[in-house]
Amino acid sequence: LNHQKTMANDEQKKKCYQFLDMTSRSFAAVIQELDDELRDAICIFYLVLRGLDTVEDDMTISLEKKLPLLRSFDKIIYQRGWNFNENGPNEKDRELLVQFDVVIEEFLRLKPGYQRVISDITEKMGKGMADYAAGEHRENTSVATIKDFDLYCHYVAGLVGYGLSDIFAESGLEDKSIAKDKVKANNMGLFLQKTNIIRDYREDLDDGRQFWPREIWANYVTEFKDLTLPSNSEKARHCSSAMVLNVLHVVPDVLSYLSNLHNQSVFNFCAIPQVMAIATLALVFNNLDIYHKNIKIRKGEAVRLISASTNMDNVVEIFREYLKVISQKNDPLDPNFLEISMALGKIEQWI
Ligand code: PS7
Ligand code: MN
Ligand code: MN
Ligand code: MN
Ligand code: MN
Ligand code: MN
At 331, is the secondary structure helix, strand, or coil? Predict the structure, then answer.
């Protein structure tokens, strides 16, 4: 009987790693390489948040249904047998929610300390997502101020930084101090999320979502979608550089956080997404393609970055390389030129 139970557990766990491969382009490989102590907890953390984000992203679910789901997702992960098959057929991660009972079973098998971190972060993220979906912090359809933008990014990414840091500390593989510096942990998430939001301008616009803060884009155009107009191309260029400038401010905290890590598998897991983000930031800077299509760093470039991100010296060198690209693309005629130069100078000082 015991043997049968173990077999069933093995199957369930296998299924979770299949969900991970299915739903994550960037995180599947780095999570699989984590030390045994962390691998399952972070895989389940990822799948729980991916499930929550699938609910948030699905514009076919009415607000009446969506808000209570988002607000109670931290309770749902304790409900054996729960799954959800009412979300839109186009939603790419639909299958994860249809078979979510499997994720719940594996969640319930994690150490209580890991379960507590995951449910705590899920609760805060779900409630934050619900506030924004309900229209708070918005002016019309757009996120209103830079403060609102920072808060949204805190909910969907900064909190992941908190939770991961708590899990690293709990595992004993990293110092307890890694979970104490909340500003740095938050900025680890913000760097990924803000870069993603700049790159995904077009995709998000086409989905009816506007994450760029009005406080920034209203300096350049009267309607958010007007950034795509050929007649506005210079304004659009300057608007995107204002967005890039906003992200550059967190780079010193990112490098500082990474320099405090000790465990090799944790370092790779944390560094690879950040290195991809700085390469993406250099690619989107002064690049009008973001307004028209999905752009991505080249496969070969990604492969080089992944294999280089194994120690702090290499990571700093890669950041330098892309900051130089940004510096060389910085245009003296751009109204953000001087502030971008100063932000780059400040990072240079840190390095
Ligand atoms: C638990 C690994 C390492 C201290 C699903 C990793 C979507 C950018 O635009 O899928 O929807 O396609 O490309 C990840 C800090 C979060 C922040 C946030 C959970 C780093 C739900 C990632 C990932 C903290 C909300 C994925 C924030 O982008 O987005 C685990 C340290 C999920 C991290 C979302 C975004 C992540 C994101 P899109 P992507
Ligand atoms: Mn993505
Ligand atoms: Mn989302
Ligand atoms: Mn999403
Ligand atoms: Mn996105
Ligand atoms: Mn997406």
Answer: coil
